[in-house]
Structure formats: structure tokens, C-alpha cells
Design a protein that fits this description.
Chain lengths: 277, 804
């Protein structure tokens, strides 16, 4: 059996730690290695080097002048925090881990590292700002460019609840159900709920492994519709199945923004390898 | 010269034949306290007045049955009085620091406790159930989503305008930054520096403008968060309202007639609705950045505030309470607020308020031992404060003296309507009324308990009934007639008066118990005189160590007291030793030495500060007597010293002054004194002998020493004539007197005493103003004159020397 690896993008934010926690959950049944990556964002360094840039703090609502040495110091502290968070998560779940710091632009650095990973995990967004639903640029970039499964950490803590699969198509591939079943085990879900387009047949595969599966059918899947569903509100994890082609990209982002628990975006690629235990 | 007293007068024996019953079982119960009519009237007067300030001080020696009497009268009255209301403390929903006192009709408080316990129990499940509904979850999510969208929208608007100016927003770890963008990336600083100045200025201006907009948006966020929080709270109220209202309605049942309780329950309902969030089970499922922070942990802690703490509750119809405070420390009196230790800090709330005796007695009567309450720090002033203000304020002792100012509960004061009875010694009462101005205002009535009653026919009969009543109450055997007669005699002896009976009930009750023990041991159906006698002997024996020791030392000659022969200037006086409850007498030598001097009679004990003021007074009187009687028109040129020999503890009292005067006269006259006699009595400046205390013990003290050495037939004691009615001597003394082997001589003047002691005539001034030749007085006068002449001669000699 080859070594599985979960790449976790760490930036010291609460959101990235939520992603790390979810990644560790997934790592336990798959026996994966947690690989932390902290990217020192050159964009920020460049921004700080401009003569007039200021930062407006969320708490103070006042301007603070920025200069590159401030940013360098923040990088060091955040990297240290990230390293410590990874060490703790790995120790708690008994998984091997490694940590790396890279300097560059965040998404390209992650993309280059993603090639060696089975799953790429990231926070919904970076920073410690006020509540908002927008996905950060990193999560958007990964969804747009990484074909392998992507884990977007939630904004709330891990809690038991159903494992939910959302797909616009009416057919749910067996491999997706198997992955949902794996998640249900990892996140202690009492049931699997499949939300899919109309038509198609009742899923049965996971039932064979002892978990009840429910199916709810909708003519079309929208972010507003999904958000109103009770199952989604209390879900422990959600699997979003990539639509064919690139047309569904914006819908994926909207769905990920509407969901507060960890979200797995999966496509046809990579899943079979992950499950080939 | 007076003769010895007839043996019959040495003891006022009680003739059993005057008692017309065979045992006390035949006697009716006593009504009221024997001989305490005055005190009882005062108690009834005080309890009849409900006005403030008419509290009672019951005074008298210990053991008079003050508590019993007061309690009996109060109980009899209290049972027909109105039952006072129940009092509870409930949470203060306004500030949390001042628990509210809630009044309920008697017996209703426990019902409210049950109702509120039930309410809390139901609340625990009803509120989480309301929060579990899909409706609640959905509406709460809407509020959260609205808040998030509002922020996103505001930042989006800024971003759109920024992009129009070639700028963009960059999210930073703890804030937002603006930067000029070029090709989707932050502009390279080098590029910027190479730009024309005009372009740089344009960018800087745009930056500054957008920065202001960004600040404005960020400043709005806390307000939006508050608004969202407000909406969530309103939602919480809405979803819980029905459930809570229904529960409160249930609690209201049975209290419709009590507006205070209804108002309290309304406050409870309002409070539950305002704090509904607290009862929501904290679910991890909520968004971490959701607007209102989750309530502090410990729902149980929060639920405590709906409990009811009953301070006092009286079953309806039981009448007014009569409470006795046994240990009058501050918190036992006014109540206290207990504290719990939590993580090293002390915490408290209204459920930890505990009542004091004032709460328990409120609406009725409170009995407190005056000495007890006065000896406890702060207790008496707290009592006075409560009585003066008519309310009970619970505070920490430290608070009452201003040492603690913050962080403690201030329970609402409870109105106080209580009659306090303080019980204690007379001396305490007089001290307080002299030195404490508030005391007189608060304790306007005094019940003065008598120490004894006249031993007339009625007195003896009542005493017998009292014995019967005590025997019944204490489940003792009945006392037969002879036993009662013996107890009557003991009552007189305790009263130190053959014509009175002691009212020290405690002592009597103890003696009855002790006698009963012997009667039961002997298997007798009733207690006999012999049993009483044995009990009394037992008591004496147990307390006899010191007395026997002194007698023993006298026999050995360690303590020098002669009981035969004669000595000049040396008289046997009699002293009484009091050791707790017991007392005994023994002889002590008084010696006098005289010489010519400046006219002073020196009390050696006073010089060494071992004599009390009364003793000193007795000695100073002697100087007055000598000068007035013998040398009224000349200075007294005498130096005399007097001492009670072998006295190593302090001496107080003037009962040795007759002996001292006789010793002085003996010394002056050179007349030997009979050592077979002892003297007691005080004397005034005219030579009259006055009554003293402890006459029985004193006589018996000398008798005991003589009896141990063998009665010679010449021995006896001189006592003041006015002490004759107090004689209640032991039977063996009476027996010796009957056999003519021991005598008690009453004396009215010092001359009588001198004659008896010296066997010489005292002598009265004749028509010529002179004392008869050879009389003691003549010899004393002659000696004093000789001193005076010598003094004058010495004075002249000194004067001529000075002139030469």
C-alpha cells in the first residue's frame, strides 16, 4: 500500500486550524501523513514595501502603517504557530507529519505541492477577520485548479451529524458513496444523506455497510436551497461532487460558502486511488 | 452580760407535724413560680405591651428559675397569639446583590419552594426543547446569514470602487489593506518608484480616499454584530415565551391571593425570557463566529436563582414562637450568609442565607442570656440595632464594623416585631442601665426575681407543693413529710436565714435528684428525711477537702489558733471562705499591738494592699470609736497596729471589726482574752455590734476545730444579737449546746463582748464621768491618757531644744 498524504495549507488562522482538524479526522481511517505547508506570501511583502500602504484593523478600525520588517516578523510567528498546531494535531491523531515553509505566491506554491498529495486541505479563508461567507482566494484557487479531492475546513467545530453528499447529477457513483461512508466513519455520522438531481435510483451500496442512507431529490441544486436544508445545517461533513466540465465552478464556490462544516470537493480523479486500500 | 442562747434558738427546725400530708404525691401542682409574684407581674406587663422598647430584663441570681418562669408565662400567652408569617429570600433580579425578602402567610413558604423546584425541573427540559425546534434553528441561521452577507456586501462595494481606481483589497491576518494592483498582482514597489510623480500622487490620493471608506465599513461591523445579537435575543424570547409562560402559570396556582408572590413570579418569567440563551444546550454545531457569545457554562448555577430559600416557616395556628438563643454569637442572632469555595474564591448567593434567632422568634418572643450576649463580640450592639430599627439586617460581622465594603450580598432587611427577654444578674442590669443609654430605651421593663420567701405557714406549704411538682415533672419518687421538713430547713440554711426560704430552684432540683437516688437505692417508695440527709452529707463530703485541710493544719499548729487559755491583745475572729457554690467558716487570729504615737490605727493588711475597702472601713471606725469614747477632748496619741494573722489571700468585709476592737482594747487595758471563745460581728463608732453574713458557717467553723480537739465545756462563739434570726446551725452544734458543751452568745455592744472575752467588767462612766476602778474601760482610758501625757512631754522637750 502506498503512502497517502494530506497536504494542509497552514497560515496560522483559525480557519486553517479547522481545516487541519478535519484533515486529521480523514487521516485516521486512511492512515495518511499530514503534510503542513506555510507559504510566506510575497504579495504581502510587496504590499508592505509600497511607501503608503496601511492596514485597517478589524478591531481598531484604524490605520496602521506597514513595512516589510513587520510582515517578515508576522510570517515567523505565524509559521511557528502553524508548526505547533500541526504537531499537536498529529500527536492527537497518531499520524505522521511534516512541515515546510515556502516563500512565493500562495496558490502557485500550493499547486506545485499538491501534485504529491492525495488530498489538499485549506481554510475557508485566511486572517482573523469578522464573520463573512466568502471563500478566500486560496480555497477558490484550489477549487479551480486542483483535480484531486480538496478539503475546505468549516467555520464551526467538529460535531456529529449526518454525512451529506450533494451532486447536481441524478446518478451517484458508487465510489462517491464509498467515500461518504469513509467520512461517516471518520466524522461519526449516524447516517448518510444524498442530495441529488431528480431521477436515478436509490443508493444502496453504503447500506450494505450498515449505515442508513436517505436520498432527497431536487430539480436543481442552488446555494440558497442547500443552505435552507436542515440536513446541511447540522451535517458533520459535506461532499460536493464536481460537475462535468467547468460550468459548475461558480456553483461549487457558492455551495462551499453556504456550508459551515468541512466540505470535500471531489471529482472523478483521485478518488479511486484514495479508496484503493 | 447576756447569757448563752437557748439551744432551741440555734436552729429553726421544721416540725413535720405542721405538714398535713404524708407524701408530696398528695399535693396539688404549684401555680406560677413560688414567691415570684412581683417578677411574674412584670413579665405579664411587658408582654401585654406590643410597643417597641417594652422589652424585658429578668434579673436575679443564677438558679432562681428565671428561664422557666419567663418561658412558662410566654408560652401560655404565645399559643393563643397570631402565628407570624413565613419569610423567604428570593433572587434579586434587578441587581443580583440584594436578595428580596418575601413574606407569606404562615405555613405557605414550603409550598412555594415545591412550586419553584418543580418549575426549575420543568424549565431544564422545556427550554432546550424550544431551542431544538427546526423553526428556531432556521430563524437563527437567517439572522447569522444576514449579518455575514451584510459584511460581505459592504466589503464588495469597497472593492468594486477600489478596482475602479486601480486598487484592490488585500486580506491581512488581523485587518484589511489596500494596494495598487497591476495585472492582478500587487504593484511592484520598483514599478511604483519609476512612475511619474503625477501618477504616484494619483495613486496616493486614491489610496487615502479608499482607506477612509474601508475604515467606515469596518467601524460599522460592531454595530451590525450588536444588531444581530439583539435579533437573536429577541428570537430566544419569542421561542421560549410560550413554554415559560405556561410553566409560570402552573407555579402561580395556589398563590393567587398573594400579590407579592405573583409579582415575584412575573419577575421570574421576565428573567427567564431575558436569559433564555443560558438554558440553550451549547451545541458545537453553531457557527464559531455567530453574533452572541454563548452563555457562561453551568446552567445549574443559573437555575439556582429561581429557587426559594425559606428562612422561617411556622405551621398555621401554632401561635407565636418562643425561642431561646443558646449561643448568642453574632451570626446566631441576626443570621448569616454562608460562602462556598469555588476554585479558591468564596462565592455566595441568596440560597446561602441562614436565619438567626431573631428571624425564628420574629412575631413572638426571644430569650437571651444577658451575660452570653454581652460577652460575644458585636452581638449586643447588633441586637440593639435590630430592636431600635425594627428590622433584621443580615451582614457579616466585619461589615457591621465597616471592614468589608464590596462583593458581598446585602439581603433586604426583614421587618422585626419581637419581644426580647434578657436574663441575667442584677449587677449586669445596673451596669447596663448606668452605662448604656440605648439599653434603658429598649428594655423598659425589669422583672426582679426574689431570692427567698418568708418561711411562714403559707411559705412552707407552697414550698412543699413546689417539691411535689418538681418531683412529678422530673419523674422522681414522692417526698415524705419528714423529707420535706428537712428540705425546708435546708432552704432556710441556703437563704442564710432561719425565717426565710431560698428560691434557688436549681439547687433544690439538684438536691431532690440526689436524694431520690438514695431512696431508689434503698428501694423505698418515697424519699425520706434520711435520704435527704445523706444527699446533703454527700455534698459536703465532696466539697470538704479545703475545710478539712485547714482544720488539720490548725490541729498540727501550722495555723496558730488556741481554743483554751488566755492571751492579751489576741482574739479569735471568724472568716468565711467561699469556693464556688460551697462555703465554710474557720477561726483566724486577730492581734493588736499598741504604743504611744500619732493617733493612727494601722491596718497592716491594708498597708500591704491585701485588705478590701470594707475591711479598711471597719478598722478606721475603731479609731473613731476610741477617740470618741475615751478622749473626746484630746488628741489621740496612740499608734496601734492590727492584723488578721496567717492570712495570705485578700480579706474583705468588716465582720472581724468587733474582734479587732476587742483585741485593741485587750492590748490597751492589758486584759487577757479567753481563747476558748471566738467573735464575729461588725462594730460602729458608738460601739454597737452589727449583723454580719455567713453566721452559721462561722459558728460551725469554730465548733469544728473545738470538737476535733475535744469540747471543753467552756467554748463558744460571740455573734451579733441581730443575727439570731439567721441561725440555722447544724444538728451536732445544737446537740452540743443542749449538752452544755458549746455556747452561742449574742452580743449587742462591744462592752458585752469585752466582758465575755476578758471576764472583767467593761464599766460605764459614773455620775463623776469616770469609769469604775478596775474596769476594762477605766484601764483603757488610763493608758490612752498616759500616752497623751507622754506625747505632750515629748513635744515640750522637742520644743525647748529647738529654742535653745
Amino acid at each position: 500500500m502506498r503512502t497517502r498524504r494530506i497536504l494542509v495549507a497552514l497560515d496560522g488562522s483559525p480557519e486553517s486550524r479547522a481545516a487541519l482538524a478535519a484533515a486529521a479526522r480523514l487521516g485516521i481511517p486512511t492512515g495518511a501523513e499530514l503534510s503542513g505547508l506555510f507559504v510566506e506570501d510575497v504579495e504581502l511583502l510587496r504590499l508592505a514595501a509600497l511607501p503608503f500602504t496601511v492596514e485597517v484593523g478589524f478591531a481598531s478600525a484604524g490605520p496602521h502603517p506597514l513595512d516589510p520588517s513587520d510582515v517578515e516578523r508576522r510570517f515567523r510567528l505565524a509559521a511557528e504557530e502553524a508548526r505547533e498546531a500541526l504537531r499537536e494535531a498529529a500527536a492527537a491523531s497518531g499520524l505522521p507529519s511534516r512541515f515546510r515553509v515556502a516563500r512565493g505566491r500562495v496558490v502557485p506554491e500550493l499547486l506545485s505541492a499538491a501534485g504529491e498529495a492525495d488530498v489538499v486541505a485549506t481554510g475557508k479563508r485566511s486572517g482573523r477577520g469578522p464573520a463573512g461567507r466568502r471563500l478566500g482566494g486560496t480555497a477558490r484557487g484550489l477549487i479551480a485548479h486542483v483535480p484531486s479531492p480538496i478539503l475546505v475546513g468549516g467555520v464551526r467545530g467538529l460535531a456529529p451529524g449526518p454525512a451529506v453528499v450533494i451532486t447536481a447529477s441524478s446518478r451517484v457513483p458508487d465510489v462517491v458513496l464509498r467515500f461518504a461512508s469513509l467520512l461517516a466513519g471518520a466524522f461519526r455520522a449516524p447516517e448518510i444523506v444524498v442530495i441529488a438531481g431528480e431521477g436515478g435510483t436509490e443508493p444502496s451500496r453504503a447500506e450494505l455497510e450498515g449505515l442508513p442512507v436517505r436520498r432527497r431529490s431536487f430539480p436543481s441544486i442552488s446555494s440558497g436551497g442547500v443552505r435552507a436544508l436542515r440536513e446541511v445545517a447540522i451535517a458533520s461533513s459535506v461532499v460536493l461532487v464536481r460537475p462535468e466540465g467547468t460550468a459548475g465552478h461558480e456553483l461549487l464556490v457558492a455551495l462551499a460558502e453556504a456550508i459551515t462544516c468541512p466540505v470535500f470537493v471531489i471529482g472523478p480523479r483521485g478518488l479511486a486511488e484514495l479508496l484503493s486500500a | 452580760m447576756g447569757e448563752a442562747l437557748a439551744p432551741g434558738r440555734l436552729r429553726n427546725s421544721c416540725d413535720p407535724s405542721v405538714l398535713r400530708f404524708s407524701t408530696t404525691a398528695e399535693l396539688p401542682e404549684v401555680e406560677g413560680a413560688l414567691g415570684q409574684e412581683r417578677a411574674e407581674e412584670a413579665i405579664r406587663f411587658a408582654v401585654g405591651l406590643r410597643q417597641r422598647g417594652f422589652n424585658l430584663f429578668a434579673m436575679g441570681s443564677p438558679g432562681l428559675g428565671k428561664h422557666e418562669t419567663v418561658r412558662r408565662i410566654l408560652k401560655a400567652r404565645a399559643k393563643d397569639e397570631e402565628t407570624p408569617p413565613d419569610w423567604c429570600y428570593v433572587h434579586d433580579f434587578a441587581s443580583g446583590q440584594k436578595p428580596k425578602a418575601l413574606k407569606l402567610p404562615p405555613g405557605r413558604a414550603p409550598g412555594l419552594v415545591r412550586a419553584m423546584d418543580h418549575f426549575v425541573l420543568e424549565l431544564r427540559s422545556a427550554i432546550p426543547a424550544a431551542f431544538e425546534t427546526d423553526e428556531y434553528r432556521a430563524r437563527r441561521r437567517e439572522i447569522e446569514a444576514e449579518f455575514s452577507e451584510r459584511q460581505d456586501k459592504a466589503f464588495d462595494e469597497v472593492r468594486v470602487r477600489a478596482r475602479e481606481k486601480g486598487l484592490d483589497l488585500v486580506r491581512m491576518p488581523v485587518g484589511m489593506a489596500l494596494a495598487p494592483f497591476q495585472d492582478g498582482e500587487v504593484m511592484d514597489p520598483e514599478t511604483y518608484r519609476k512612475m511619474p510623480v503625477a501618477d504616484q500622487d494619483r495613486i496616493a490620493a486614491a489610496m487615502s480616499e479608499m482607506q477612509k471608506e474601508l475604515e467606515k465599513v469596518i467601524q460599522e461591523i460592531p454595530r451590525w454584530r450588536r444588531e444581530a445579537g439583539e435579533k437573536v435575543r429577541e428570537l430566544n424570547r419569542t421561542v421560549t415565551r410560550t413554554a415559560v409562560h405556561d410553566l409560570v402559570l402552573e407555579a402561580r396556582q395556589g398563590f393567587e391571593d398573594l400579590p407579592d408572590v405573583q409579582a415575584y413570579l412575573s419577575a421570574v418569567e421576565e428573567d427567564v425570557l431575558s436569559h433564555a440563551e443560558v438554558f440553550r444546550p451549547s451545541k458545537e454545531g453553531e457557527a464559531a463566529s455567530a453574533p452572541p457569545p454563548a452563555g457562561p457554562d453551568g446552567t445549574e448555577e443559573k437555575l439556582r436563582r429561581y429557587r426559594v430559600n425559606v428562612l422561617v416557616s411556622h405551621a398555621a395556628g401554632t401561635g407565636a414562637p418562643v425561642v431561646r438563643l443558646d449561643h448568642a454569637i453574632f451570626p446566631n442572632l441576626v443570621g448569616r450568609v454562608e460562602h462556598l469555595s469555588q476554585l479558591g474564591t468564596l462565592v455566595t448567593d441568596f440560597t446561602l442565607i441562614r436565619p438567626g434567632a431573631l428571624h425564628e422568634a420574629n412575631g413572638g418572643y426571644l430569650l437571651i442570656d444577658a451575660h452570653d450576649v454581652l460577652s460575644q463580640p458585636l452581638a449586643f450592639s447588633a441586637l440593639k440595632r435590630a430592636l431600635a430599627s425594627g428590622s433584621i439586617r443580615i451582614e457579616l460581622p466585619a461589615q457591621s464594623v465597616g471592614l468589608v465594603t464590596a462583593g458581598f450580598l446585602e439581603p433586604e432587611p426583614v421587618p422585626l416585631d419581637v419581644k426580647v427577654v434578657l436574663l441575667g444578674d442584677r449587677s449586669l442590669y445596673y451596669l447596663l442601665s448606668n452605662w448604656d443609654p440605648e439599653f434603658a430605651d429598649l428594655f423598659k421593663v425589669v422583672a426582679d426575681f426574689d431570692e427567698d420567701v418568708p418561711r411562714d405557714a403559707a411559705g412552707v406549704e407552697a414550698y412543699a407543693r413546689l417539691i411535689g411538682s418538681v418531683a412529678r415533672r422530673e419523674e422522681l419518687l414522692p417526698f415524705d413529710r419528714d423529707a420535706v421538713a428537712r428540705l425546708v430547713e435546708h432552704g432556710s440554711r441556703t437563704a442564710e436565714d432561719g425565717e426565710r426560704l431560698s428560691l434557688r430552684i436549681r439547687d433544690l432540683v439538684d438536691l431532690l435528684h440526689e436524694s431520690d437516688l438514695f431512696a431508689r437505692g434503698g428501694g423505698r417508695p418515697a424519699v425520706s428525711a434520711a435520704d435527704v440527709e445523706r444527699a446533703l452529707e454527700g455534698r459536703e463530703r465532696r466539697a470538704d477537702r479545703m475545710r478539712t485541710r485547714i482544720l488539720h493544719e490548725m490541729e498540727r499548729g501550722t495555723l496558730l489558733v488556741d481554743t483554751e487559755g488566755t492571751r492579751t491583745g489576741l482574739v479569735n475572729a471568724l472568716t468565711v471562705v467561699r469556693l464556688g457554690e460551697t462555703s465554710f467558716g474557720h477561726p483566724t487570729r486577730v492581734t493588736a499591738r499598741v504604743r504611744q504615737g500619732s493617733g493612727k490605727v494601722v491596718d497592716i493588711l491594708r498597708e500591704v494592699e491585701m485588705g478590701g475597702p470594707n475591711h479598711t472601713k471597719g478598722v478606721l471606725i475603731l479609731g473613731g470609736f476610741l477617740a470618741g469614747r475615751y478622749l473626746p477632748d484630746r488628741p489621740l496619741s496612740l499608734a496601734a497596729s492590727l492584723v488578721l494573722e496567717q492570712s495570705y489571700a485578700g480579706v474583705e468585709g468588716d465582720s472581724a471589726s468587733v474582734a479587732e476592737l476587742c483585741a485593741l482594747l485587750s492590748a490597751l487595758a492589758g486584759a487577757p482574752v479567753l481563747q476558748s471563745l471566738a467573735v464575729t460581728g461588725s462594730v460602729n463608732q458608738h460601739g454597737e455590734v452589727q449583723a454580719i453574713g455567713g453566721v452559721n458557717e462561722k459558728i460551725e467553723g469554730f465548733f469544728a476545730l473545738c470538737a476535733r480537739r475535744g469540747l471543753s465545756g467552756a467554748q463558744g462563739v460571740l455573734i451579733p444579737k441581730s443575727n439570731i434570726p439567721h441561725l440555722m446551725l447544724r444538728k451536732e452544734v445544737v446537740a452540743a449546746a443542749e449538752e452544755g458543751r458549746f455556747f452561742v452568745y449574742p452580743v449587742a455592744t462591744v462592752d458585752e463582748a469585752v466582758e465575755r472575752l476578758t471576764g472583767l467588767p467593761a464599766g460605764e462612766r459614773g455620775a463623776d464621768g469616770r469609769f469604775p476602778k478596775g474596769s476594762v474601760n477605766e484601764r483603757v482610758e488610763a493608758r490612752l491618757l498616759a500616752f497623751a501625757k507622754a506625747a505632750r512631754a515629748a513635744g515640750k522637750a522637742d520644743g525647748s531644744k529647738e529654742e535653745s
